[in-house]
Amino acid sequence: MPTLTLAVGGSDGGATVTNVAREAAIKTKAALLAEASKYMGVPAEALDTKDSQIIIKGTDNAFPFQTFVIDGEGITESYRGSAPPYDHTGKTVKVYNLIFAEVEVDTETGQVYLTKQIGAADVGKAIRPKSVDNQIVSTLSWTQGVGLTEEYIYDTASGILLNGGFLDYKIPCMSDVATDTIPIIVETGLAGGCYGATGIGENLYDKGVIQMAVFNAIGKWIYDVPITPDKVLKALGKI
What we know:
Elements: E1 2-5, H1 13-40, E2 47-50, E3 53-56, E4 62-64, E5 77-80, E6 97-105, E7 112-122, H2 129-148, E8 180-186, H3 208-218, H4 229-235
Parallel strand pairs: 1-5, 7-8
Antiparallel strand pairs: 2-3, 3-4, 6-7
Helix pairs in contact: 2-3
């Protein structure tokens, strides 16, 4: 199995992670073929891998990987290094993301309901699409929380934070996320990671999408997030 040693993380880590994973995997494959060569009595150059099996090139002979695992121990190789997110021209590669939000606003109570979210993310290449879907949805949830519910409340006399825990500091949970939440994966292959991949996460977040949706609903800008009912009513001149 490959062992990764990373220099960066988060959304920026995608380009490095995929390149490092590839290099570690190449070393692991070479070690596996070397071990198989000893067992099968043929040069490692005559072997290859396919469908989790070692094959002898040009023949139908195939052996499962586990055949070469000794005493239950796997084959482990590590790689330390990174690859900058540059294309062949030496320029930084840019990828783009779009997010959309649809809201309903109760003008009597000031309550804002998030009814639909869409996140379209250019990840270059989705190495594991399900993980990318989950990352897009989680970032949309983050956008929702900052835009509508997450607010620190301080005691004006003492300056003490009154809602420092998640019981009082309202982050969206599963029941709060818009039922109609749609992640869209865009694969341009233009980023600097392995197979043209890049990271996805913080770079999809934008609290402004909630503000713009509310403006389109009530015709009034609310610049201070989160957009709570009292702020909506104040913007409408009702309080």
